[in-house]
């Protein structure tokens, strides 16, 4: 088992687990960028309402009930960006239900276009703060959570805005099934160290790496995102971290 680096997240200061910020449902990123094309706007208006989760209503006892009766498990991808990874996963595993969380409107428009093109029926979407979704979901309802190339918020005064905090780690532990996984990808060394420190001090998670290749190489059938390809072109090396929910 590899040894985690020291917790660089707080620089010796008392830990800020971000609970107060995430409890308010805060969202710190941009919600809209370039103007949507006409068809994209139409998908936002007409397709998204059929796929969007209503967290104002009580959650179902099983998240699998949001999908067809053939759905075996449910996975969540937080901040799916352009949707490349989420779409590929949904195509590869038609018997698994996927929830994509993305507050950025342009990213939502892109994935709706792909859902329509491929006629995918095993994706549901949430256009809001993932912390709110975690609080809404029933216990032990997810088989996996993916966080791929999240915004690293590199300035120290913004570290509380990172998704990985003690509060969100605890929330993920609540909704992951025993032996479920949290998977994290980033090309930012500081955020990787931050994530390792937060997950390894949690009694609910075990880092699965046993050798360097386990975190230096993508897991099997991993779909590289557009951002990941850009990072590679610019010489930045990503880490692929997997954490198992222990009982």
UniProtKB/TrEMBL annotation:
Residues 1-24 are annotated as: Disordered. GO terms for molecular function: tRNA (guanine(46)-N7)-methyltransferase activity. Keywords: Methyltransferase, S-adenosyl-L-methionine, Transferase, tRNA processing. InterPro entries: SAM-dependent_MTases_sf, tRNA_(Gua-N-7)_MeTrfase_Trmb, tRNA_methyltr_TrmB_bact. It catalyses: guanosine(46) in tRNA + S-adenosyl-L-methionine = N(7)-methylguanosine(46) in tRNA + S-adenosyl-L-homocysteine. Pathway: tRNA modification; N(7)-methylguanine-tRNA biosynthesis. The keyword Lyase does not apply. Signal peptide: none annotated. Substrate binds at residues 155, 187. It comes from the Bacteria. PANTHER family: 3-DEOXY-D-MANNO-OCTULOSONIC-ACID TRANSFERASE/TRNA GUANINE-N 7 - -METHYLTRANSFERASE, PENTACOTRIPEPTIDE-REPEAT REGION OF PRORP DOMAIN-CONTAINING PROTEIN. Catalyzes the formation of N(7)-methylguanine at position 46 (m7G46) in tRNA. Belongs to the class I-like SAM-binding methyltransferase superfamily. TrmB family. This is tRNA (guanine-N(7)-)-methyltransferase. It comes from Bradyrhizobium lablabi.
């Amino acid at each position: 088992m590899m040894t985690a680096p020291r917790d660089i997240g707080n620089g010796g200061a008392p830990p800020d687990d971000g609970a107060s910020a995430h409890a308010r449902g805060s969202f710190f990123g941009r919600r809209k960028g370039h103007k949507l094309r006409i068809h994209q706007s139409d998908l936002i208006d007409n397709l998204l309402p059929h796929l969007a989760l209503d967290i104002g209503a009580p959650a179902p006892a099983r998240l699998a009930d949001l999908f067809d009766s053939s759905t075996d498990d449910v996975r969540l991808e937080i901040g799916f960006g352009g949707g490349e990874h989420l779409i590929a996963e949904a195509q590869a595993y038609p018997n698994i239900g996927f929830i994509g969380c993305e507050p950025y409107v342009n990213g939502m428009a892109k994935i709706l276009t792909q859902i329509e093109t491929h006629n995918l029926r095993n994706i549901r979407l949430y256009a809001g703060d993932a912390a709110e979704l975690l609080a809404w979901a029933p216990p032990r309802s997810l088989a996996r959570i993916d966080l791929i190339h999240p915004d690293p918020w590199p300035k120290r005064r913004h570290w509380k805005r990172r998704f990985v905090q003690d509060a969100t780690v605890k929330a993920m532990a609540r909704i992951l099934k025993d032996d479920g996984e949290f998977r994290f990808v980033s090309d930012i060394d500081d955020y990787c160290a931050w994530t390792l420190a937060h997950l390894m001090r949690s009694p609910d998670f075990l880092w699965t790496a046993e050798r360097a290749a386990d975190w230096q190489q993508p897991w099997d059938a991993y779909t590289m995102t557009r951002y990941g390809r850009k990072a590679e072109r610019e010489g930045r090396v990503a880490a692929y971290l997997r954490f198992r929910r222990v009982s």
